[in-house]
Amino acid sequence: MNPIRHVLTALLLLLLAVIAGTLGFMYLEGLSPFDALYMTVVTITTVGYGDITPGSFYGRIFTTGLIIWGVSITLYALIEIMELVLEGRLSEAFGIVRVKRSVAKMKQHMIICGGGRTGSMIIEEFNAEGIEYVVIERDPEVVKGLKKRGIPVVEGDATEDETLIEAGVERASGLVSTLPSDCNNLLLCITAKSLNKNLDIVTRASSQEAAKRLYSIGARKAVIVEAIGGRRLAMSLIKPAVVDFLDVVSKTGETSLEALRVERGAKIANKKVKDLKIKEKIGAIIIAIIRGEKVISNVGPEDEILEGDTVIVVGKRRSLDRLDEMDFF
């Protein structure tokens, strides 16, 4: 049970005891509401009687039961409160409440399933881009570390409906899974899609076969991390300058890369690169056009940009920000 629920349950039982005692004394002893409440508090706290005492036989029986019940509940409440304070669970409990409230307000956010090494890299990228997100993690130690860093985290199994709903999957725009098991990633994609069919999912895969299964159930991208790492290692040895360049432009800073999708009705659609004059206007360059499975990497002035294309643009950060102002997309 959630730590704060223990205290709330104890306080609720204590309130119930006070109400029951007050009503009991009013009925059995004929006391006024105030005197009955006073009698109940004196009984539960075991202060003793002075001016008002139970006079009837049934009143004494009722008082005996109320003492046993009330004292037990009072001790239970005090023990729970002391335990929360001494173990530091009170701050943790309120921290959980704050995170839940924060996540409940999120819309069109991202969900990161897995807060380990790969998840930490994704967190850094999202932070750099100013993207709103929440992490789902089941390892208590990892959860503790994420909380210390002020990262919104939901503790639980990402493959379960309840955990995903708590992370706001129904309002989220995207989900990235870093779970090490293909079976878990597969189950996660199925569960997430059943809760939000429009969810954009990117997931980790260990093989091409696993990637095919993930694509078949609606994952937009299945990344084989080991294959990408192997190619990067090879390129670092063969063409280190290219890797260094990609490291620079893939990070936010002086120079950056942007991937922009050309939606239906966009001003940039059905126009040649030379007619847009993006380089002359803002100093950015279109270096690639992704069209379905085809990648046009040697973009020339005569190449035409079509609806549905994804345009890769490189330039200074402030130049790329101006693309939104120019309303090209």
Explain what the structure shows.
With 329 residues, this protein is of the alpha/beta class. It has three domains: 3-87, Helix Hairpins (Orthogonal Bundle); 106-228, NAD(P)-binding Rossmann-like Domain (Rossmann fold, 3-Layer(aba) Sandwich), CATH 3.40.50; 253-326, Alpha-Beta Plaits (2-Layer Sandwich), CATH 3.30.70.1450. The protein is 55% helix and 16% strand. It has 14 helices and twelve strands. It has helices at residues 3-29, 33-44, 57-87, 89-105, 117-129, 140-148, 161-166, 182-195, 208-216, 225-238, 240-249, 273-276, 278-282, 317-326; strands spanning 110-113, 133-137, 153-155, 174-177, 200-205, 221-224, 255-261, 271-272, 285-291, 294-296, 304-305, 310-316. The strands form three sheets. Strands 3-2-1-4-5-6 form a six-stranded parallel sheet, with helices on both faces. A four-stranded antiparallel sheet has the order 7-12-9-10. The protein has a two-stranded antiparallel sheet with strand order 8-11. Helix 8 links the parallel strand 4 and strand 5. It is elongated. The protein starts with a helix and ends with a helix.
